[in-house]
Every structure is written in C-alpha cells, then in structure tokens.
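S.,

Sequence below, as promised.
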Amino acid sequence: MESLQELLVDILNIDFIQGILSNPRTKDGVLKIKVRPVEKKGSLYFQFESFTETQAFHENLTAEDAGRRIVEYMSAFRQMQMTTRSMNYTVLVSKKGKVTIQRKRQAAEVKAPELSHNRSKKYILQEGTVVPFLQDLGVMTGDGSVVKARFDKFRQINRFLEFIEDILPQLDRGRELTILDFGCGKSYLTFAMYHYLHEIQQYDIRIIGLDLKRDVIENCNRLAEKYGYDKLQFLEGDIADYEGVQSVDMVVTLHACDMATDYALSKAIGWNAKVILSVPCCQHELNGQIENRDLAPVMDYGLLKERFAALVTDGLRAKYLEAFGYATQVLEFIDMEHTPKNILLRAVKTGKNSTDAEQKIKECETLLHVNPVLGRLLYPDGE
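The prediction came back faster than expected:
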C-alpha cells in the first residue's frame, strides 16, 4: 500500500473533491465509504461517511489521519474512486493485496468543493445547475430549480446515478462502451445515464433504449437529437426478440413488467455484460405456481402470497445471476414511500460461476414447486 500512501499525501488537500470506497470483500460490515473535505473552525478535515445495510456513520479526520484510515480501509475494499480538481484516480486492490492506481486528467478543472460541515444533501445532478433534458422532461425549470411536484423523480434520478458511480471502475475507458436500456419508457434515467457518463465522466459510450411505445420512442429520439447526444438512440421493439448487437457492456432494465425482466436478464447473461442494473416490476409469474402447505399462513391470503411471490422471484433472479458468474447485490432503489417497486439488482461480472448458487436455486424451486422463466431461458435443455 506504499504507493497509495504516497498518493494520499499528495492529494488530501483543499483541491480534493471526493473519494468513494466500494466493492467490499465481505458483505457483513461496512459496504461503502464516502470521503469529502470539510472545514471546522478554520481547519481542513476529511469527513468519512460509512454505510452498512441499515446505518450511516460519520467521522472527521485530519489529512494525515485520513490518509492512514483510507489505507486501513482498503485492506477490506477492492476499489476506490478519487476526484480532485484536476485529476481522477481509480485504485484497485487484488486478492493478494497488489495495488494498481489509474490516473486520468480532468478535461477541465473542477470547481472547488463545498466545505460546509453541515451541508444539505449533495446530488450528482445539482439543483440550480441547468440540465436541458430535465427541463424538457418537466423535472426542472428554466433557471435550474427543481419542480416541487417532481422532486421525487429528481431524487430517483440521482439515486440511480449513485449506483452507476459505484461501478465506474468496472467500465473500460479505452474504447466505446455499449449500454442497452430495455423498457426505457419516457427515458428519464436513460438521458441521465448518458449525460452523466458522457458529459460529466467523459466515457465513450453508445446507449440504445428499447421500448414498445412508438410515440414515446419518437419523442425520445427528437430530444436526443436536440441535445446533440449523437450516440443515444431509441428503438421500437420487444426485449425477447432484440438481436441488434453482438456484445454489450452494461444492461439496464428499469420496471420492465413481469417476465420482461427475465428476458432482459437472460439477454444480458448471454452477452456476458459486465454490469447489470435491474429494477423488477409486477412479478406475477410465480404467484400462480407456488405450492407449499406448510406456508399456509402466507399462501391463504392473496395479498401476502403476492408479496411473498415477488420476493421469491427476485431472490431467484439474484441467485441465477450468481450461478452465471456475477457478484450480485439486492439494494434499495429509493424510499418505499415513493414507490413500492424499490428493489434494484446490481450485478458485476466476475467470470466465476457458482455451483453453490445453483444448489440453492434447486432447493428453493423444489420446496415451492416453481419453475421460473429465467431458469428455462438459461437452461433450455432443463439441466
């Protein structure tokens, strides 16, 4: 870690914007850490915000102590993104503890960070900064203010971008990346994804949005042309039948209804997509299949059975992804008060298929007498 210590000595100063430690080696403790500079009584400190599944903890440290703490933490994390006013750094730590540091200069110097200790929530897309696509989608006014009635959508968009921010080290900067958004709808998040990855992070990306509604697709294409988003294209079509690309780097499927999610996940696995982000919706399939007399206290009540079936559906989807070589997390997308469809599956390709996951799938499906479509798509011969 000596090279990392030397780097931290150089960059933990007033020009430091933020650091994000992610991809922990275990899932039973701190899952993510954010570091940012703060000013207290005229002195510069670095605030550590550590997240577990249910809690967030804060700690303020001097530059020297912050550097030591980051090095300590990196023994438990696989990657870290750090941003300064002039540079972006990606730190990767192998299983054997080998540290690799990637450096990329900012296209333009970033504005100095806000050092207020008790600042309000900092969003990736900031209120007060005009974002054209948010204006046209009715989320933002001409002066950059967020429309009060659409603030939930503004929060949702930023929350989604935070999930993408975490997986940036998995995306190759050295070539064009292909991203597919199945069931893109009005494409709030598709435009946000393109804006963030291409305009802010300056990745070379091509995004294809796919949906069945012709009028929606036509409008989205008009907007993409208006903004000069040359590599953002929207197509009319069905998820199950789409064959327009040979390989894909990231697949996004947000609120694709019922089995459409399964077809999207199957496609993503078939393309060996490096990253999959999926928010399932309307999980009806297994509700008509589940049989287990021992679970009568749940199964005898339609509403409870429906919710149980939805959780089983998404749990099996996560395990199928693990079985096919993905490190998979089940995350909360946004607060339940804003939408009941708040589970997000985030999967990153490791290439290490899991026989343990396969065994757990078999046991669960046998116990509940279910045969989900995703399993049939992935194992067409019934293996």
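The CA atoms of residues 112 and 326 lie 38 Å apart.

Coffee later?
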